[in-house]
Amino acid sequence: MTRTVYLNGDWVDETEARVSIFDRGFLFADAIYEVTAVVGGKLVDYAGHAARLKRSLAALDIPMPVSEEALLTLHREIVARNALSDGGVYLQISRGAEDRDFLYSDALRPTFVMFTQARAVLDNPKWKTGIFVVTMPEGRWVNRQIKTVQLLYSSLAKMEAKRQGADDVLFTEDGVITEAGSSNAHIVTKDGTLVTRALSNALLHGITRASILDLARAAQIRVEERGFTVDEAKNAAEVFLTSASAFVMPVVAIDGQPVGNGKPGPLTARIRDLYIEDRLANAI
Ligand code: PDD
């Protein structure tokens, strides 16, 4: 038996429910969710879940798609429509769907999905036996080497950069620049050395980064792989970003302070030329 689910104002069969591939929940994890337990057809701790839902939406500046009263009615209705006795109601609200861009538009309408899951909430055999657990380093989210769609923070940071009149953001950690919003960051020191952060789990292993390092070394440009500080970047001769979407992008100001003479630098241009020449010739 299939469930009846809720999708943006409609009750539809679970096999018919479709969300766009451009939904920001899918592309950027730009969404929030709640799970409310149901026992004997009744919502457990509903007020707390509804309150947190409001807090989560407010934190992300996603509008509440329905009124508080309607939200409770929807919860009750989905339980009734699915004759759910015990289990839970899963609810997810994303910022909505539009063409992929870290920056989102004001026109977006949230995507609102609800479905039920049947489960014997009060009859859990593990309550008797207990469960086994293992410890792991806290990693939410330190595994930046994995190219996941967990891009919410990057998206929010880029929006804030835009509000501040900037084009992108440089992320810092313990005074060191980790990466830009969606690209790797590099500097050229006053003595012409290309400095870029060494690979670790703290940054995405950029394909463009690897290529420009190879090309720079082949062109006898000195390369150092080490962390560099915000001050070093602000006082560098040149700063640039690399990614598959922007190739080699000069940065001319950081926090309103010009880098070098405030114009794109010559080594940045040379590296971009090397990259374009070599990689386009080898494009397949
Ligand atoms: N972003 N660092 C981050 C956090 C990135 O998101 C990206 C790419 C890079 C550069 O990796 P590469 O050189 O392999 O593209 C570094 C892509 C372009 C994006 O999200 O649009």
TrEMBL record:
Its EC number is 2.6.1.42. Belongs to the class-IV pyridoxal-phosphate-dependent aminotransferase family. SUPFAM superfamilies: D-aminoacid aminotransferase-like PLP-dependent enzymes. It catalyses: L-valine + 2-oxoglutarate = 3-methyl-2-oxobutanoate + L-glutamate; L-isoleucine + 2-oxoglutarate = (S)-3-methyl-2-oxopentanoate + L-glutamate; L-leucine + 2-oxoglutarate = 4-methyl-2-oxopentanoate + L-glutamate. This is Probable branched-chain-amino-acid aminotransferase. Keywords: Amino-acid biosynthesis, Aminotransferase, Branched-chain amino acid biosynthesis, Pyridoxal phosphate, Transferase. Gene3D superfamilies: 3.30.470.10, D-amino Acid Aminotransferase, subunit A, domain 2. Its cofactor is pyridoxal 5'-phosphate. GO terms for biological process: amino acid biosynthetic process; branched-chain amino acid biosynthetic process. One of its GO terms (molecular function) is branched-chain-amino-acid transaminase activity. It comes from Ectorhizobium quercum. GO terms for cellular component: cytosol. Pathway: Amino-acid biosynthesis; L-valine biosynthesis; L-valine from pyruvate: step 4/4; Amino-acid biosynthesis; L-leucine biosynthesis; L-leucine from 3-methyl-2-oxobutanoate: step 4/4; Amino-acid biosynthesis; L-isoleucine biosynthesis; L-isoleucine from 2-oxobutanoate: step 4/4. Acts on leucine, isoleucine and valine. It comes from the Bacteria. Pfam families: Aminotran_4.
